[in-house]
Amino acid sequence: MSYERDNIAKLQAYVPGEQPQTGTVIKLNTNEHPDLPHQAVIDTLRTFDPELLRRYPSPTARPFRELAAKVHGVTPEQVIATNGGDELLRLFLTVFTTPGGKGIGVSDPTYSLYEVLAGIQDVPVTRVPRLDDWSIPNDFAGKLNDAGVNLAFIVNPHAPTGRLESVDTIRKIASEFNGVLVIDEAYTNFAEHDCLELVREGSGLDNLILLRTLSKGYSLAGLRFGYGIASNPDLIAAMDKARDSYNTDALAQALACAAIGAHEEVSASWQKIKAERQRLTDALVQRGWSVLPSQTNFILATAPAGIDHAVRIYQTLKENGIFVRYFNHPRLLDKLRITIGSPQQNDALIAALDNMN
Ligand SMILES: *Cc1c(COP(=O)(O)O)cnc(C)c1O
User: Fold this and answer.
1) Residue ranges per domain, the chain?
2) Cα→Cα distances 191→10, 33, 277, Å
3) Do 209 and 177 form a contact (C-beta atoms < 8 A)?
4) pLDDT tens digits along 66-112
5) Which of 83, 114, 166, 303 has its CA at a distance of 20 to 30 angstroms from the CA of residue 10?
6) In ligand 1, which atom is closest to the CA atom of 214?
7) 222-261 burial code (b ≥16 CB/10 A, e <16)
8) How far is ligand 1, taken at its centre, from the CA of residue 297, in Å?
9) How many CB atoms lie within 10 A of CB 131?
10) Residue 17 Cα to ligand 1 middle (Å)
11) To test ligand 1's pocket by mutation, which of 184, 327, 339 has the most ligand atoms within 8 angstroms of CB?
12) For 103-127, what is each residue's pLDDT tens digit?
């Protein structure tokens, strides 16, 4: 006797990157930041008042939202704080798709969690393949409108390729699309530009939401703190009705405020990662790999000798305690996604590759 709802029984759960909890491994598989969080975050943690644990936190993370609004040039009513970006993604499904309806649209390949969340909500996924250069086809919005989809996701800069679409491209898609468009900016800290201007006053768009997370750019994957910035406060108000009443805890709110308050200093670490990204790219290219130009803290690298080679390298690296990501997607079988680590970690990766030959 199964007590599960049918769609949950059928569901393939999300497979996170491996998270070995012991031993000294080099983790280049889940796009974590190689540095510790900023000193302001560490100081806030050390001096945190336990009285704040006795009381309930701000239900809407008001102090964080005010700070984030100031940093990004929007109003607090345009911001929602969540328990990681992943909670925000789940909220989008809950609030903007209808049971039995047409579901969500994505540009394929994409973050595999979207599909799992659609499965939980029991709605279908319309996939529009990216073109050969991994750009988004011109008729993306048109195809989704034809399919009757009213929630669409674009990761920008894109995972797993690292490609960045222009603000004009995103503006055009948002204005053509009949539903809510989510631009997942999980990796925006490592990119040349973001889409903030499209959610600021005067953009003329009422259907756009940006997703941000502190997991990647702020070295806080363990904290679980993300947020959304909407062009239209009504979208935030709708999501506010559907989230857990205290979805972010007091400690997370305090540390998130410290982190975003230090954004200017933290940005120096983004520059270092970009420099390492170039160095690792050059080293791989010298060794016969082809590497897509990346606007994120990872690179998608094609193994010199094809699919078997990519699998073999992935496995050998793992045996050597170096974890990278391999995707079982028809267009990614000869590729590895490698997070940009510290200079020492990147050197260890290169040395391990050289040792294989
Ligand atoms: C990391 C990531 C997120 C959010 O991650 P959280 O750790 O839950 O904040 C969202 N989208 C993409 C594409 C990501 O890579």
Assistant:
1) 6-37+264-356, 39-263
2) 38, 15, 12
3) no
4) 999 999 999 999 999 999 999 999 999 999 999 889 999 999 999 99
5) 83
6) 9
7) ebbbbbbbbbbbebbebbbeebeeebbbbebbbbbbbbbb
8) 13
9) 10
10) 12
11) 184
12) 999 999 999 999 999 999 999 999 9
SS3 content of the chain, % helix, strand, coil (to 5): 40, 15, 45
- Under CATH, which architecture does the 6-37+264-356 domain have? Alpha-Beta Complex (3.90)
Using the structure block, give the residue that is written with the tokens 């070995």. Answer: 20
Closest by alpha carbon to 225, among 198, 260, 197? 260
d(CA 226, CA 215): 8
Secondary structure (DSSP) of 67-134: HHHHHHTS-GGGEEEESHHHHHHHHHHHHH--TTS--EEEEES--THHHHHHHHHT--EEEEE--TTS
Q: What is the DSSP letter of 282?
A: H
Distance CA 103, CA 242 (A): 18
Spatial separation of the C-alpha atoms in residues 146 and 256, rounded to whole Å: 40
SS3 285: helix
The residue whose CB lies within 8 Å of the most ligand 1 atoms, and thus the one to mutate among 161, 163, 184, 213, is 213
The three-class DSSP label of residue 337 is strand
Are the C-beta atoms of residues 157 and 164 closer than 8 Å to each other? yes
Cβ atoms of 230 and 200 closer than 8 Å: no
| Placement of tokens 């000294």 in the chain | 24
pLDDT computed for residue 357 by the predictor: 65
Q: Which residues line ligand 1 (CB under 6 A)?
A: 84-86, 111, 155, 159, 184, 186, 213, 215-216, 221, 226
Average pLDDT value for residue range 221-236? 98
pLDDT digits (tens, 9 = 90+) for 197-226: 999 999 999 999 999 999 999 999 999 999
Note whether 6-37+264-356 and 39-263 share their fold. Answer: no
Q: Please report how the helices 343-356 and 263-286 are oriented relative to each other, as an axis angle in degrees rounded to 10.
A: 20
- Structure tokens that stand for 68 in this block: 């984030």
Query: Which structure tokens are listed for 89?
Result: 């993604």
Q: Would you call 254 helix, strand, or coil by DSSP?
A: helix
